[in-house]
Amino acid sequence: MKKEGQVRIPSGCAVAAVIARDGERMSGSCVADAMVPMHERSNGLGGGFAGYGIYPEYKDFYAFHFFFDSRATRKECEAFLKERFEIVQSEIIPTRKTPAITDEPIIWRYFAAPLQSELRIWARSRR
């Protein structure tokens, strides 16, 4: 049987995690450094991140991060979200420009809470 690296596995991915047990704020550089070897993972999509507690001012809300190809796609996605969530904040995610990247996506974040009507529908479906 061929191993990872000898064959391209479409769903191959990796995980890195860090936690501050004392609850203190910390730099994300250690996680970013851990992602370096995952840059070219087997499916060619690069690495990804998930975080908990990175937005303490929005601790009671979901944080959704999206990469959009166009404003029209962003508006379409936002309409979908508004049908299911109360959006409490919506903003572009600040990025550092890199000259080598010429067709960058629109990177946007939403902080949202599920609509009460959606929660009732979900609760009924769980019975």
Provide keyphrases for this structure.
127 residues, alpha+beta, Alpha-Beta Plaits, 2 domains, three-stranded antiparallel β-sheet, 3 helices, 24% helix, 19% strand, extended
The general outline is extended
Broad structural category: alpha+beta
Estimate the mean pLDDT confidence. Answer: 81
| Contiguous runs where pLDDT drops below 50 for at least 5 residues | none
The figure for the number of domains is 2
Strand % is 15-25%
Main sheet: strand order: 1-3-2
CATH architecture of the largest domain: 2-Layer Sandwich
Give me the number of helical elements.
3
The number of strands is 3
Name the helicity range. Answer: 10-25%
Computed Rg: 18 Å
Give the class-level CATH name of the largest domain: Alpha Beta
For the report, how would you describe the main beta sheet? 3 strands, antiparallel
Which series of helices and strands comes N to C? HEHEEH
Distance between the termini: 45 Å
CATH topology of the largest domain: Alpha-Beta Plaits
Give a written overview of the molecule.
Helix content is 24%, strand content 19%. The chain has 127 residues and is an alpha+beta fold. The protein has two domains: 1-54, no CATH class; 55-125, Alpha-Beta Plaits (2-Layer Sandwich), CATH 3.30.70. A three-stranded antiparallel sheet has the order 1-3-2. The relative contact order is 0.14.
